Amino acid sequence: MSATLIKNAHVVNEGSITYTDVRIVDQRIERIAVNIEAKSGDQIINAEGAFLLPGMIDDQVHFREPGLTHKGTIASESRAAVAGGITSYMEMPNVNPATTTIAALERKFDIAEQSSLANYSFYLGATEDNLEQIKLLDPRKHCGVKVFMGASTGDLLVEDPQALEAIFRDAPVLIVTHCESGAVIKANQEKLLSSKTQFAIDDHPVLRDEHACYASSSYAVELAKKYNSQLHVLHITSAKELALFEAGAIDNKSITAEACVHHLWFSEKDYAVLGNQIKCNPAIKTEHDRNSLLAALKTGQIDIIATDHAPHTWQEKQVPYEQAPAGLPLVQHALLSLFDQVKQGKMTLPQIVEKTAHNPAIRYRIQDRGYIREGYYADLVLVDSKAGTLVTNENSLYHCAWSPFAGHRFSAQIEKTWVNGCLVYADQQVIEHSSAAMCLAFAG
Known about the structure:
By secondary structure, this protein is an alpha/beta fold. It has 13 helices and 20 strands. Strands 1, 2, 3, 4, 5, 15, 18, 19 and 20 form a nine-stranded mixed sheet that branches. The longest helix is centred in the middle third of the chain and has 18 residues, at 210-227.
């Protein structure tokens, strides 16, 4: 039996901040109380007033394995994730080959069992003809089905109304959607081409504007209401879309929404400096859109904060705008960016924990995670809000070896991360544990 006693921590959990101790025995939290007395053999961690949070549950990452491992792997990106305080993730199907069958899905679970340092689950990708595979998904093991509605590459685009209706009618798991209308994007392209011969990076939020997003997200919400589906709309980027979602607590909602850390941080003004580094889909939009998303976190119209971590090599980004891939690496610095939002008065620490841990656990019905509670798995992150973190490409742990935050000094520092009671990150070093991570289990 292994035991760790964390003393003198500011525990951020369930809407409050409490100065207390936490004792971990093996994989779980045994006790939470003031002045817990150490037992023989306890490893004692003096938190010295640092903040102890439930580990972030990131419901949207692209770790690029199989088939795109020159960009990242489950091993490399999960290590960057735990360095950033992310203890669980759910990974997307747009790899090579795309994860569109149960057999392909199970192969990814096998890879993660051998190499992931954070807890894991994987989405099946919807196509216009794999409904029978979708019906085989197990709500207790599989986190959901991903539907690219109107904007994707390869076999994962689902535009046919009959196929979409069938998915929303018959999916046995949560439906998560990427919502951008291909028809609106095409119309925007044609309009812009009337005044220019080629596109540049500052055209990106014009081509993939609020109307492209709203046309698709409103359709998804319409289908979910028609079939009483469980729908989670990923990476909302525009103020216009917010009217589609109910304010208030996430409990008992059947339609929920998410924002991602880069859409809360950057605006269209950053394209001039960062260029293709922040090219992503949906596009980073205006300051008004960014501020509206931050406000919607407080009203509850935005329920969850995720990353949409999507690494590409530096070389792949150093090409003309139209050829550059969309996506950026984020998991190592996501939680730190939210601590900066707190310092700027835009969020509170309890709100961070609600949106990154409590609400993902509620929405996905994750068993025994997302809270600091006795009997729950010890997925924890200790954050020093007084020690800063200077980001460089050299100290980024992503396989792609660069960060859009390079040159920025965050106000906080990730001190330690535990996954199922195993210390996997400390002293700015990843600590390898071959059996630390687990497959996420859901209540179904």
